[in-house]
Amino acid sequence: MALVSADSRIAELLGELHQLIKQTQEERSRSEHNLVNIQKTHERMQTENKISPYYRTKLRGLYTTAKADAEAECNVLRRALDKIAEIKSLLEERRIAAKIAEIKSLLEERRIAAKIAGIYSEAEPPRKTMRRGVLMTLLQQSAMTLPLWIGKPGEKPPPLCGAVPAAGDYVAKPGDKVAARVKALEGDEQWILAEVVSYSHAANKYEVDDIDEEGKERHTLSRRRIIPLPQWKTNPETDPEALFHKDQLVLALYPQTTCFYRALIHAPPQRPQDDYSVLFEDTSYADGYSPPLNVAQRYVVACKETKKK
């Protein structure tokens, strides 16, 4: 049912997106005549080699109209981008639901085969855990589909855009992915990728699930042990201030794992689709850091700890 509902909504959004694309072309065609007039006016001014009060007044009016036309087209494009972001989010949810259904089907087939072979007991069913390869693929897809923040002229990137932290009173919603500091089996503490289950305003604590294991006991953690992940990617060309900078200390998701480790930014992204290049702390290397590794913008957050001496 969930897949059918997602398909229906995606089809609806695609229809709305198609109309917005047509509207964009209409806005562009409508403004073309005014742009031609601007060009012709400049040509006449060059021919006469003077800027008369008449031309000055005419150009002021033409440019005012051109600005209004550009803003109208920009508003339509922003609405189209919102539709695209929603479609991408639904497609990601659909892929995840399909993968989970595939895994459940495979586990059921194995359970039946094991039962036939006499090595399965209904009293002790096999633990259902997501295959690591599938999980890593889903995490990669989630990073790729993170929407890109595109602000209006002069508008600053909002909280949770790239390196911009969450507001002080921000509370992550159920289903949101976060970096969570938990106690490991050995008693040490580590930062893991987790999913928010709930938040208690009375206790000021989260309940989160380790993303790596289905059915694992939930962690109850205070807000200071939770770091929300970015909700938008940053465009380095327009909002470089919303990126972590070279040599800045961060927590980054180590490739092919679900754990965050301390790292230094080796190089920030140069284009919106680029990853960070980071140097993970690693005592097995002479300088204490690993060679550069790529980590998606979605999985790089500010480190709450001080840099090691």
Task: Note down, in words, how this protein is organized.
By secondary structure, the chain is an alpha+beta fold. The protein is 40% helix and 18% strand. The protein folds into two domains: 2-109; 154-309, Roll (SH3 type barrels). α1 (2-48) packs antiparallel against α2 and α2 runs antiparallel to α3. Mean pLDDT is 85; it is low at 124-129.
Main attributes of the structure:
SH3 type barrels, 309 residues, ten-stranded antiparallel beta sheet, 18% strand, alpha+beta, elongated, 3 helices
* Gross CATH architecture of the largest domain: Roll
Please identify the top-level CATH class of the largest domain.
Answer: Mainly Beta
Do you know the CATH topology of the largest domain? SH3 type barrels
Oligomeric organization of the protein chains = single chain
The chain-level mean pLDDT equals 85
Total domains: 2
Structural class: alpha+beta
Order of helices and strands: HHHEEEEEEEEEE
Count the beta strands. 10
Number of helices: 3
| End-to-end distance | 55 Å
Percent strand: 15-25%
Ranges where pLDDT stays below 50 over 5 or more residues in a row are 124-129
Task: Please outline the major beta sheet.
Answer: 10 strands, antiparallel
Helix content: 40-55%
Characterize the overall form: elongated
Indicate the radius of gyration in whole angstroms. 26 Å
